[in-house]
Amino acid sequence: MSDPVSAVARDLAEIGRLVDDDDLDTALSRYIDRVVTTVPGCDHAAITVRTEHGPQPVATNLPAAVTENSHRPTVAVGPIGEVLAHREPRYLGDTRVDERWPAYSALLRRAGLRSCLALPLPANRTRSAAFSLYSRTPAQFDSASHDLILLFTLHAGSTFDNVSTYHHCRSLVTHLEAALDNRTTIGRAQGLLMRHHDTSTDDAFDHLRTISQRHNTKLRDIATQLVTAQDNGKFASVLSTLTSAPTSPSPS
Questions:
Q1: CA distance linking residue 68 with residue 239, whole number of Å
Q2: What is the pLDDT of residue 16?
Q3: CB crowding 195-220: b at 16 or more within 10 Å, else e
Q4: Ranges of the chain whose pLDDT falls below 50
Q5: pLDDT of residue 162
Q6: Choices 3.30.450.40, 3.40.50.720, 3.10.520.10, 2.40.50.690: CATH for 4-168
Q7: Residues whose CB is less than 8 angstroms from the CB of residue 110 and which lie 6 or more positions away in sequence, other chains included
């Protein structure tokens, strides 16, 4: 029979493949659930990133009362905030007696949590991230669970990097698709103006820009109006309205 750490490692590898297959919600949810069911005494877990607005959970099964208040300034200076700022581990052994982070300890106490271990994620990113475990039992997460916690921490860094890369790529693709759509629409509008006025590409673009400035409206929105009008058989009338309408006042 294989040892528990090896079994967990195989399961984490499977979760990593889910990330590769773009099933991100399932991957993160299974990851957090696996932490809670495997690490002795762990009742909740979270992955948190540092943002300009303070610590922001990106994966968590913490009670809503904790996550909804974790961005408050008095709470953000707690152990999670320090891990994100200094990339060093922090351990809150008992929320009833620890006096280092009173606001954060009080927040956890109200949720019935007594101890917290927060570790920096060893991963490649510009923004720091933290992996935190929570227990209803004080002085939890001792040396007996060290190997499991270390394994989860190392894998959390890899998983979070994969998720971050995926979201970055998706965002980039979305922006590129929008840019291509805008370029296509503007190109179609130029073609319509060239045919309507029997003019050059540059003159058609200047005409679009003039209308855009006249109406204080983005160029792509003017182009969309003209293309839609053409599709509805109303190009000439819409163009006439846009061309002859008075100049809109610029926003103050």
A1: 51
A2: 53
A3: eeeeeeeeebbebbeebbebbeeebb
A4: 1-2, 18, 21-22, 169, 250-252
A5: 58
A6: 3.30.450.40
A7: 65
